[in-house]
């Protein structure tokens, strides 16, 4: 497998530069230490939305905590808005906005009160804070709810307020940690539109972490795919998918018990690349979808294996992830969840 060649974009005005970050959490309760970052390297050109995509436990939040000065790496360097996150900690804090996974708003205060307080904390005068609060509430479609307590907001409204809170002091770089986790599809799409608008209209650099492939595909102009604390591939979603030639054939089986047999039958056909099993679905990378499907269906019919559905698709980010890590995104998430349960 060829190593990723474009983890660095090189040249231009870089808003974030991350070089070889390593972070190990110490051993706890007879558990071994956890190497959360293992030489993480990537950069983000100014004005770009970069998605740090990886399954749970890949190290995304740890990276964001280091870049937002909330945690320190064991080694490696990171610069944000041209400033070193260790040596220029205070200046970094003023140059960035950070929207953590957990909401930081006060549920008993109104939207306006939350924003005004945040403005005051950042050193804005009272009148500037009030003006900025009104401007942000308007921009995020929250003006009508401005004087309501935040606890009465829907999940989507609360998340928009969280993003607004991160923007009060007009940062140059905005960090969004898993911004749409827990939101329904409509609220998620709504927030995507807001983030797109922000980056387009204001030239804001946005680093967002996500474990939603669809979110990464839709929102990020550049992606860094993270696995076990390292960037395994990077580029625009289109570039990453275009690197995979051919198509992806998915065979959904009526009976999950036959997946192993189907895996070996399909693997034996000509023109077939990697074959993986994902639940009752067997997925294969093929040179040509149009010629592979009749061959796949032929061999399954011959063996009298019932098929629920067959689909042919252009490569997805899941295929990209599979190519660089050897497992599907869903399998990686399940493994990470199982690991967490064991550790608990
Ligand atoms: N404070 C901590 N102490 C010990 N281990 C930690 C700590 N924080 C994170 N980890 C471990 O470090 C690894 C990376 O975690 P991190 O939260 O950075 O991943 P992530 O990609 O953001 O995933 P998630 O979306 O689940 O937060 C995981 O194995 C996690 O269990």
TrEMBL record:
The keyword Endoplasmic reticulum does not apply. Its main location: membrane. The keyword Membrane does not apply. GO terms for biological process: daunorubicin transport; doxorubicin transport. It is found in: Cell membrane. One of its GO terms (molecular function) is ATP binding. This is ABC-2 type transport system ATP-binding protein.
